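Pipeline run #58 for the internal structure catalog. This entry was flagged by the ingest filter as a single-chain record with no existing model, so it goes straight to prediction. Upstream metadata was stripped on purpose; only the residue string is passed forward. Reviewer on rotation: M.T. Logging verbosity set to normal.
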Amino acid sequence: MKKIGLLNGPNLDRLGKREPEVYGTVTLDQIEDKVKAKAASCDCEVEAFQSNHEGALIDKIHEWADGGFGGLIVNPGGLTHTSVALRDAIVASGLKTVEVHLSNIHAREDFRHRSLVSGIVAAIVAGMGHHGYVSALRYLSEKA
């Protein structure tokens, strides 16, 4: 059974409350439950982790890479546009990675158009809301 990490960055713990017109009303717990339910039918096991702290996210990537995980679904949140360290951790992990964004970052403010992560991941899903996470899982279940 493939192990896939589901990593969510800063402020994603506020989903369902934070700017529902942009991010929707589905909570992070609900997203994690949907992904884990789908994982069972894809012969995958998903472990989810969220933190508002960059170092904790990096430590979790290292842990998953060392623990034999095959894939990573990552929504870096605001760190998408700022964190070279998170990017480097993903590269060093060797994990097949899909970057996910609830909103279409290219249809938003100019500073959101540039992702430091996009150039090193296998695929990017943006603008599909919570459905993007399940799409990422389906991809990794076949490719990781």
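catalog note: The chain has a mean pLDDT of 94.
catalog note: The first strand starts at residue 2 and ends at 8.
status: ready for reviewer M.T.
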